Amino acid sequence: MSVPRRRFLLVFGLFVLVIAGGVAYFADSAPDGLDSVTQRGCTVVQTAQGERLEGHCIAQNVTKHVFSGGPLADYTVGGDDRWTGLAGVIGAAVTLGAAGGLFWGLRRRTGGE
């Protein structure tokens, strides 16, 4: 790998990690667009056991995601909202690593390499 390409990848990786860690703190905790649409027709009621939906809407048929109890669920680390930036950095690093590994593995090889 040439030095300019290596330098570009290093700067790009650092830029992505800084943006992921900084922008993650500005993430909105309100329901996103998909959640909002699926909750139309229902009212969210707070109970002692948590939130409950009253009415008729698509969201009443939602089940927990297989990773909902995972250490990085809900854009936090271990459920602690103070670590949102760290969750963003970990997510970006894992995504960059997976994508980089995939592209590195699938790259077209020439006869000289």
General description of the model:
α1 packs antiparallel against α3. The protein has helices at 3-23, 33-38, 84-106; strands at residues 42-47, 50-55. The protein folds into 2 domains: 1-27 and 73-112, no CATH class; 31-62, no CATH class. β1 and β2 form a beta hairpin. The chain has 3 helices and 2 strands; from the N terminus they run ααββα. It has 113 residues and is mainly alpha-helical. The protein starts with a helix and ends in a 7-residue tail after the last helix. It has a two-stranded antiparallel ribbon with strand order 1-2. It is elongated and about 60 Å long.
Offer a quick outline of the entry:
This protein is mostly helical and 113 residues long. The protein has helices at 3-23, 33-38, 84-106; strands at 42-47, 50-55. A hairpin with a 2-residue loop joins strand 1 and strand 2.
The end-to-end span amounts to: 11 Å
Count of the separate structural domains: 2
Beta-strand content: 5-15%
Q: Give helix and strand order, one letter per element, not per position.
A: HHEEH
Classification by helices and strands: mainly alpha
What would the average pLDDT be, to the nearest integer? 85
* Widest β-sheet, arrangement of strands: 1-2
Unreliable residue runs: none
Radius of gyration (Å): 20 Å
Shape: elongated
What is the number of strand segments? 2
* Helix percent band: 40-55%
Largest sheet: 2 strands, antiparallel
Q: What is the number of helices?
A: 3
Transmembrane segments: 83-106
Keywords: Cell membrane, Membrane, Transmembrane, Transmembrane helix
Domain PDGLE: 6-108
Organism: Saccharopolyspora phatthalungensis
